[in-house]
Amino acid sequence: NAGVMQNPRHLVRRRGQEARLRCSPMKGHSHVYWYRQLPEEGLKFMVYLQKENIIDESGMPKERFSAEFPKEGPSILRIQQVVRGDSAAYFCASSPNGQGKDTQYFGPGTRLTVL
Amino acid sequence: GENVEQHPSTLSVQEGDSAVIKCTYSDSASNYFPWYKQELGKGPQLIIDIRSNVGEKKDQRIAVTLNKTAKHFSLHITETQPEDSAVYFCAASEEGLIFGTGTLLAVQP
Questions:
Q1: Chain B residues within 8 A of A101 when measuring between CB atoms
Q2: Helix, strand, or coil (residue B61)
Q3: H or E element that contains B20
Q4: For residue A107, which residues of chain B lie inside 8 Å, CB to CB?
Q5: Pairing state of beta strands A10-13 and A19-24?
Q6: Residue A97's pLDDT is what?
Q7: Do A33 and B97 touch (CB under 8 A)?
Q8: pLDDT in tens, chain A (115 residues)
Q9: For the residues B28-53, what does the mean pLDDT come to?
Q10: Rounded CA gap, B94 and B71, in Å?
């Protein structure tokens, strides 16, 4: 059973470009969570999605950031018009049942560098 | 919302000694508390978790205790080994996990 997969593992963008980060949950998991980790800091919750639904986006910046988890395919975290402050590691986690009480399994992360 | 505090931020122990990391949380409704280990350049790996209907849980050299009244929980690692060196995060559950700020554990051989 493959774990949570994220790609790309490293992404370099220039200011103003778009970044697309992909997450494929573990087999059988229909709940996906995105977290951001700034250098030398802990993980901050961004958004929680089920298939085709955003359940909680309370940690998502109001502008430039969006997330989706379509019926088919991976979950996508999209950052438009990136700025240097967006440089961070972005982690995706998945769980089978959600509701905040389920074990979350993390992927290896995407390290975004904005030049 | 939930707020999780974690101490200490760094911890250095000799191989074979025990290590203890402590966390407090603010939301009495939280009832799931996982601990993650993160090695450099990797994603967090779940090492142990505890739910609020249990006061203590043990898995080989790792144990977690939970005091719901005081709203704090702790990670105990016994007989530490150099490969235990990593950053450890506690968390409490809302829809997404609310993480503590991490503890850098260094086990000196």
A1: 31-32, 51, 93
A2: coil
A3: strand B19-25
A4: 43
A5: unpaired
A6: 80
A7: yes
A8: 579 999 999 999 999 999 999 999 999 899 999 999 988 788 999 999 998 899 999 999 999 999 999 999 999 999 999 999 999 999 999 998 866 568 899 999 999 999 9
A9: 92
A10: 15
Task: Quote the minimal CA–CA distance from A22 to chain B in Å.
Answer: 15
pLDDT at A40: 76
Q: Which residues pair with B36 in a beta bridge?
A: B46, B89
Tell me which residue has tokens 């939930």.
Answer: B2
The label of the residue with tokens 């850098």 reads B104
Strands B103-108 and B10-14: parallel
What residues contact residue B60 under an 8 Å CB cut-off, 6+ apart?
none
A65-68 and A75-79: which strand pairing?
antiparallel
Residues of B in contact with A33 (CB under 8 A): 96-97
Burial zone of B71 (CB within 10 Å; 0-12 exposed, 13-18 middle, 19+ buried)? middle
Q: Where are the alpha helices (DSSP H) in B13-108?
A: none
Which residue matches tokens 């994220």? A6
Measured CA angle at B8 (ends A99, B107), to 5 deg: 105
Burial of B40 per CB tally in 10 Å (0-12, 13-18, 19+): exposed
Q: Which two tokens stand for residue B38?
A: 């993160």
Hey, is the C-beta of A104 within 8 angstroms of any chain B C-beta?
A: yes
